[in-house]
């Protein structure tokens, strides 16, 4: 009986193929198991809990993060107390969260107060000091470190009005937290006087220029011209020119209205009540024209009270009143 060689070859080939596939499948299965075990092991090793370092000194916080294989990202912030300096104010992520090793943790560290001693404000102008303290607060992120106690005490002296005569706390006092500054400020000499300029007969614009340099308190009204009077001119003043009057006296002025007003123009008197001041402060009235041009109408040192200024301007002009470079009021002319 003879052997069928082709059948034997087919039998061997089939079994060999089955063996190879079995081995390959076993290798793949083992590989999958090994990779799974590897990633499970790695994941387990990378997980760590964020420690609570808020309120701790920076060095101690860094050591705790290092033990957890975490890295800091530092941010600095001024605070209200010098005792906070070098301590952690905030952290992100929060304590107790599970994160991977190597994660960066944001730490906000106190720099303490922005300044540590009270400076000498005596002989400085109170308004300049106010602006400086506002800038200091902005630098400190809105933290009101030094404030001025209101109302400020004023007294007559030979120093310029607004000059700080005394302060409390004293200069070089250590700052450990927010402080309220008490100032005694000069209101100038007692019974100060000003000389009234010759305003009658001047155009309104020229009169406003002269008022700016004289520093008088003034009040304008307007009426139609009569007789030989010129339009847009000061025709009456109730204090004679070149006479001396008390600083807070008001010079009443009457001006005539324009002969003609264009369809796109408006004539009127700007009115605003400025808070009374212990001494004259710089007040400015400007016109923002529809063209975008800015026009100054008057800049004057003013004690306060009713502030009146005649104007003839294009419609839709915006009048802006400022005191010490801070906007007080604005209105649109129409």
Map the helices and strands.
Elements: H1 5-46, E1 47-49, H2 58-67, E2 71-77, E3 88-92, E4 98-100, E5 104-110, H3 126-139, E6 146-148, E7 153-155, E8 164-168, E9 179-186, E10 193-195, H4 204-214, E11 217-223, E12 234-237, E13 244-246, E14 250-256, E15 265-274, E16 281-288, E17 294-302, E18 305-314, E19 318-323, E20 326-332
Parallel strand pairs: 2-5, 6-9, 7-9, 11-14
Antiparallel strand pairs: 1-4, 3-5, 8-9, 10-13, 12-14, 15-18, 16-17, 16-19, 19-20
Number of helices: 4
Mean residue pLDDT: 87
Q: Report the strand count.
A: 20
Query: By helix and strand content, what is the structural category?
Result: alpha+beta
Main pleated sheet? 4 strands, mixed
What share of residues is helical?
10-25%
Radius of gyration: 41 Å
The share of residues in extended strands comes to 35-45%
Give the SSE order as H and E letters.
HEHEEEEHEEEEEHEEEEEEEEEE
Q: What distance separates the N and C termini?
A: 127 Å
Low-pLDDT ranges = none
Quaternary organisation of the protein chains: single chain
Shape: elongated
Fold and architecture overview:
It is a single chain. This protein is α+β, with helices and mostly antiparallel strands and 334 residues long. The protein is built from four helices and 20 strands. The strands form seven sheets. Strands 6, 7, 8 and 9 form a four-stranded mixed beta sheet that branches. Strands 17-16-19-20 form a four-stranded antiparallel beta sheet.
């Amino acid at each position: 009986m003879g052997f069928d060689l082709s059948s034997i070859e087919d039998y061997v080939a089939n079994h060999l193929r089955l063996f190879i596939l079995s081995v390959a499948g076993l290798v793949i299965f083992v590989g999958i198991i090994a990779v799974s075990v590897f990633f499970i092991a790695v994941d387990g090793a990378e997980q760590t809990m964020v420690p609570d370092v808020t309120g701790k000194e920076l060095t101690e916080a860094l050591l705790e993060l290092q033990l957890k294989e975490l890295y800091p990202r530092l941010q600095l912030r001024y605070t209200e107390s010098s005792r906070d300096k070098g301590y952690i104010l905030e952290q992100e992520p929060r304590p107790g969260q599970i994160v991977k090793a190597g994660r960066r943790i944001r730490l906000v560290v106190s720099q303490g107060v922005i300044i540590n001693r009270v400076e000498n404000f005596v002989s400085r102008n109170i308004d300049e000091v106010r602006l400086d303290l506002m800038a200091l607060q902005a630098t400190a992120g809105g933290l009101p470190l030094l404030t001025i106690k209101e109302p400020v005490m004023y007294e007559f002296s030979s120093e310029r009005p607004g000059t700080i005569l005394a302060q409390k706390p004293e200069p070089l006092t250590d700052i450990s937290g927010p402080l309220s500054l008490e100032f005694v400020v000069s209101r100038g000499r007692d019974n100060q006087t000003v000389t009234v300029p010759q305003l009658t007969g001047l155009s309104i614009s020229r009169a406003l220029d002269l008022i700016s340099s004289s520093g008088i308190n003034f009040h304008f009204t307007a009426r139609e011209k009569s007789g030989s009077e010129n339009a847009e001119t000061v025709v009456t003043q109730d204090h004679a020119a070149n006479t001396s009057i008390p600083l807070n006296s008001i010079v009443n002025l009457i001006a005539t209205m324009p002969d003609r007003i264009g369809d796109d123009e408006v004539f009127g008197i700007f009115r605003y009540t400025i808070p009374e001041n212990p001494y004259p402060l710089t007040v400015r009235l400007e016109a923002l024209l529809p063209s975008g041009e800015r026009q100054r109408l008057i800049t004057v040192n003013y004690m306060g009270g009713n502030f009146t200024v005649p104007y003839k301007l294009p419609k839709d002009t915006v009048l802006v009143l400022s005191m010490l470079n801070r906007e007080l009021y604005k209105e649109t002319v129409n």
